[in-house]
Write a structure and sequence with these properties.
By secondary structure, this protein is mainly alpha-helical. The protein is built from nine helices and two strands. The two termini are 43 Å apart.
């Protein structure tokens, strides 16, 4: 495996901010709407604001777990921002990480986020594979996805109509298991 350049560190920082914003901004807008529409009159306003704040923090935490753990586990090792920036999480062997590896990476964000993320940046800059501490422990690495990987896996469109020619997708009854005679001979 070749050593990733410093550019991957910059992409990872932008990716982190974008993923955080994908979760935080909707939560903030929701909290503002709830306070604006349902605020109580009188002295209970402070209690109401505390409830909204704590609810927002819990929902933000759950949203970040969803974006950083479940989403990449189910979507080829990429968060939404990683897909936009052509980054992917892989094991050191180049395989798709387990759900446990994503959980470990997310839990150790506490260490990597120390001093407003400076600890994670320093660790990425000094490690050979540009890994943060969570990546080192989970035995994962963030790699750039080549531009060719963004191309569709389907045949190219035919003509101006955007359709696919019939011969490229034609399936015979035996291919889909509908022909009993073919199934019995196998």
């Amino acid at each position: 495996m070749t050593r990733p350049g410093l550019g991957v560190v910059g992409r990872r920082l932008v990716q982190f901010v974008l993923d955080e914003m994908l979760v935080f901004v909707p939560m903030l807008l929701l909290a503002i709407a709830v306070v604006w529409l349902f605020h109580p009159h009188g002295l209970a306003l402070l209690t109401f604001l505390k409830v909204v704040l704590y609810t927002m923090l819990v929902l933000d935490f759950l949203g970040l777990v969803f974006i950083n753990v479940w989403w990449p586990y189910r979507h080829g090792g990429q968060t939404p921002a990683m897909r936009w920036l052509r980054l992917r999480i892989e094991t050191l062997e180049g395989a798709h990480p387990s759900l446990g590896a994503f959980v470990v990476r997310d839990l150790l964000m506490v260490v990597d986020g120390f001093a407003w993320g400076l600890a994670g940046i320093v660790v990425m800059l000094v490690t050979r594979r540009r890994q943060r501490f969570g990546d080192v422990v989970a035995r994962t690495v963030v790699v750039r996805v080549p531009r060719l990987a963004d191309q569709a896996a389907f045949p190219s469109p035919d003509g101006d109509f955007g359709t696919v020619s019939g011969a490229e997708l034609a399936l015979d009854r035996a291919d889909v298991g509908l022909d009993r005679r073919q199934r019995n001979h196998q």
